Amino acid sequence: MPPLLIRSDKGLVVEMTDGTAAYNENHYRLSLFYDLAKMSVLRMAQSLARELEPYSCTAVAVTPGWMRSEIMLEHFGVREENWRDALEREPHFVISETPRFVGRAVAALAGDPEVARWNGESVSSGGLAKVYGFKDLDGSQPDAWRYITEVQEAGKPANADGYR
Asked: Pick from 12, 77, 4: which is nearest to 48 by CA?
């Protein structure tokens, strides 16, 4: 184990991925290689959790939802100020979150004296927002993975009411 990580008895490793374990275990993700890459990150967090446990360190996998990253905004030809214009092209982008939202999730984990409760788990920024109470820049708490399952994949019209 890396000495810097285990030197403190509260070391934290956060693996970033796309999709929670519960979601990814039941969904094929675009292609063989993409699917394997996403599942391997989840497995790495689980394995690191076991390896780090004797050192009182924690490993967790965190996933954002639909991310309003620079590349996504560019893809839709919008900026953060007018991101809702992208809804004409992709209505389900309505559940998207800023990169700061998942950053706040990681900060909440890092500041939690009981972070070990998440050891080996796979969590979403939206799920952590409910636990820790942080919000996205617009004051909302997007719950993208519940939305993706209950609305987007269910073939319902885009509507983030009850998911933000």
From this structure: 12
